[in-house]
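Translate sequence into structure tokens.
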Amino acid sequence: MLVSCKSKQTTVVPAEVEIKVPIWVSSRPNNGFKYIGVGFAEKGKGGNYQIEAKKNALYDLASEIKVDISSNSVLYTVQNNNNFNENFNSLIKLSNSDNIEGYTLVDSYENEKQYWVYYQLDKAEYANAKAQKKIQTIAKASNLINASFYDEKNKDFSSSLKKRIQAFGVLTPYLSEEINFDPQQTNGVKTVFDLTNLIQQQLSSIAVMQQTLLPMLKPYQASYAPITYRLEIKNKVPLQNFPLLVSSDDDKINVNERTVSSSNGEVQLKVNTVEPVNQQVAFSLSPDIITLMGTDSIGRAGVGLLKQFIQTGTLKVYANVSNITLLVNSIEKNLGKPTGLNSIDMFIKQKFAGQEIRMVENQAEADYIIESSADTQEDISSTVLETNYNIKLASLIITVSLKNRLTNEVLYKTQVTDIYGYANTLEKAGLNAYASPKMTTKLAEAIFFLKRKILVY
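Result follows.
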């Protein structure tokens, strides 16, 4: 007999391997010969959690490196002057975490939610590496200081100052320690104090050349020509290609916040808006050392600390703000004869009443001149009206123009027409045309467009 048997298949399920939580996750390791750094990152927060965990571990490791403040250090002096920045230690730790070398990964651990890493750094190796790096850093700073004097000799103020700030920047991680230069290699600069004093003296040497005539600003202009000043350093040398921060001391004057001196020391301030103040106004110029450092990350990073040791100073430059002066010349005739009314003259002046405008009678004092010429004549339809209704019809024509007094340029010119007056006589009809409501409406429209040539609100 043949017996068929169905074989039974069994599936073997591997037992889950339990990953034990390392002791260093719950209990921080302690090693007298090693710096320890433990860090973790949450997996669910997005980003590269492994890089984040490493960053946290190295920051933790850097936190173990004690910053001993030498009694001969810059930091010690600042601390005793009660001007010490509490963030300094954090900055040092962050700097260390970016520059630490020789650390090793001891272990890592992860679960569903977190990723942990454990690094260590040999203390003796770190101390030796740091000492060598400090020697190299001081040598680099010395070279920069020496080169800065060469630039100064060649009257390159910006490059000289930049190198000195760079020298301070590279020394930042060692400001808590004693730093000494070989004065033979640094033109007499012995310490960081000498370096910061040198930077301070250089910034303090900037001066504004005196002006016999201050720039004049007018309110509510469509655009403004840049205001020019001249800056110099000692020995009457022009301050060349140097960036500056600009601010207005009066909130009614708005200017661009940055400018750069030219090769001949000229500084141009770009004025954006001016409101009426009718007085002398001041602008503040201060060295823009952040812009001076450009893309130099080390130098820029050191600027924040440098400002605790120096005063960048502020220079004052001035301008006058005066209201716009306007002269109105009006001629008003009726059938070729003067009316003696001055109604158009008064209407125009009324439309320009305001603190930004001052009316003058002397042409030499005027910024702008408005000229209006008005006259009446018998309208072509007057004969028909007289025949049928015994009424005369007069038309009024007004010519209005605006001229820049300094340039003699005509900025605007128009003719106002379609204004009529009715009466039994032609003379009365002409006078009635001056009194017509249509005259004020038409003239107001012309003055509106003319005013836009003088003022932009």
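Note: Residues 1-8 have pLDDT under 50 and may be disordered.
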